[in-house]
Amino acid sequence: MSHNDNEVLIEIEKLVKTYRMGQETVQVLHDVDLTVNKGDFLAIVGPSGSGKSTMMNIIGCLDIPTSGSYKLDGVEVKGLSDNKLAAIRNDKIGFIFQGFQLLPKLTAIENVELPLVYRGLSNKERRKRAAEALRKVGLEERMFHKPSELSGGQQQRVAIARALAGEPPMLLADEPTGALDTRTGQEVLALMEQLHQQGHTIVLITHDMEVAARAERVVRMKDGVLTEDHAERRERREAFAGIQDGI
Amino acid sequence: MKLSQAFRMAFKSVLANKLRTALSMLGMLIGVATVIALVSMSEGSSRQVQAQVESLGAANMLQVTITGRGLTTSLSKDEAMEYGDIDNVEGVSPIVNGNAYAKYGTTSESYTVEGITPEYADVRNVSFVEGRYIVDMDLTNYNKVAVIGANVASDLFDTEDPVGKTLLLNGNRYKVVGLLETKGDSLNGSADDKILIPLTTAERLLSSKGVKSIYLKITDTDKSEATQALITAKLAAKFPNSTNAYRVIDQQESMETLGSITQTMTSMMAGIAAISLVVGGIGIMNIMLVSVTERTREIGIRKSLGAKRRDILTQFLIEAVAISGLGGAIGIAIGYVASHIIGVVMDTETAVSFAMVVEAFAFSAGVGVIFGIFPANKAARLRPVDALRHD
């Protein structure tokens, strides 16, 4: 189903991210290029410290690149104000975090409603959409339960429903199975595959090759350099960064 | 995000931490209750004083006192009555006053004696409850009659009816013809401790020729200053080159002076209580700062889902205002009850004015805004990346 329409969703060029750690400047991302089309199921895989979390923060508009360009759905993200970034996160990105990141004092449906609250939708409209999203992940029976009353797998499904509620063009999942046992992890991955089948664009960030293998396209992150299994991209990467490809 | 939604969210989180909310609003509550109780006390007493002063007809009264210099040390009664012709003057009451020993049976005491004309009743707004007043006939005939105050009656005559009895003033026999109504304490000593006799008789009794002071009742208090100027001009003509010989006292002025004293007292009490409100505000700020730290992750989640700075700021600000406002509201209720209890126990008048309630509430909500802004701003400025990582 991928590449069924070749509209570009994410376009990253020569992206560099540096942090200042005291006196020293640490470069986390080195001239990263990445293009993601609408309908892609992409996995970014790499060991811890490879820069994939930074990559995910930038893709998720939680952080801004030091230099280079990042276009999301045709909008250049670099240089946007905090408020504009918040609006983009609300509109374009559905986050699925490793630790679920649900608000413990709110019920499942209230958690799912949150992105819609910040979009300024009416009470009724929010309820309708949140209930619909929960139905998609098979949790309509548990709408009014608090996260503490739900199992890990159910909590992650609430988080997925929350990501879906705003109908964003992209789902961004950060180690979605990290806090789950193997079986529930598989269930969550199956759900994500199913969402991909339905046409959602998914960017999955993980350190686990097995999880990454579920995606139809895999890019590797190592020491702040991104490599992809497409021949032409690999050559260019190697020539530029001069490091061994990990495959 | 809509404001109504922000309110709902803030109240939910305020209610979620009931004990903490209750404790942090305690400072505000005590502060507001103190303000209400203290200010109601001083406001009550100032109303009491004002009522007394007003009952003496002070608002529309001018007093001229003549101390005298050189040859002329006083005005004659007729000269004094001329002041009634001045524009805006409604009534004139010339007075000769001094002290005399009053004796009835074996009881003897010193009292203020005022020699008056019949106009006294109207100008000074003192009426009698029993017998009759001093009349013009008493003045022309040099009658030795007296109208006595309520305290004089109870001191000298105890339970006896004084009207018709005879008392001795400095050894002279005076017949009590009337009893004045009780007026209570006033600025110039108690009106109940006075003995009133005809002006002409008083000149003899006190061996003092002429009028020493004049009370003038004016029609329009707004024109009081113009009238005073006319009176002063007339006095200046009578006592040339000696402005010290006379003095025009505006009762309204002295009332204002008194008012400013109670005002000072009120604002001092309010000031002390305001300090406790500020302390309460700091308490709220403290709690809000803890709350921000504790809820960093929540803020991160909200921000990652698209909450703007303004949304977070509003949420935390409303929480702070809700805590302080609620504390203020409960404080008002407790202060109201306390002021009533104080009024009953200490037997003073207390008054809780509507304006005070509104001010106290607005102030406590304002404290919430002022002390909530810093923590709310801290929350709003958190970077979502850092906030999400926080645990």
UniProtKB/TrEMBL annotation, chain B:
<keyword id="KW-0472">Membrane</keyword>
<dbReference type="InterPro" id="IPR003838">
    <property type="entry name" value="ABC3_permease_C"/>
</dbReference>
<feature type="transmembrane region" description="Helical">
    <location>
        <begin position="312"/>
        <end position="338"/>
    </location>
</feature>
<feature type="domain" description="MacB-like periplasmic core">
    <location>
        <begin position="21"/>
        <end position="233"/>
    </location>
</feature>
<dbReference type="Pfam" id="PF12704">
    <property type="entry name" value="MacB_PCD"/>
</dbReference>
<keyword id="KW-0812">Transmembrane</keyword>
<comment type="similarity">
    <text>Belongs to the ABC-4 integral membrane protein family.</text>
</comment>
<protein>
    <submittedName>
        <fullName>ABC transporter permease</fullName>
    </submittedName>
</protein>
<feature type="domain" description="ABC3 transporter permease C-terminal">
    <location>
        <begin position="272"/>
        <end position="382"/>
    </location>
</feature>
<keyword id="KW-1133">Transmembrane helix</keyword>
<dbReference type="Pfam" id="PF02687">
    <property type="entry name" value="FtsX"/>
</dbReference>
<dbReference type="InterPro" id="IPR025857">
    <property type="entry name" value="MacB_PCD"/>
</dbReference>
<feature type="transmembrane region" description="Helical">
    <location>
        <begin position="268"/>
        <end position="292"/>
    </location>
</feature>
<keyword id="KW-1003">Cell membrane</keyword>
<feature type="transmembrane region" description="Helical">
    <location>
        <begin position="350"/>
        <end position="374"/>
    </location>
</feature>
<dbReference type="InterPro" id="IPR050250">
    <property type="entry name" value="Macrolide_Exporter_MacB"/>
</dbReference>
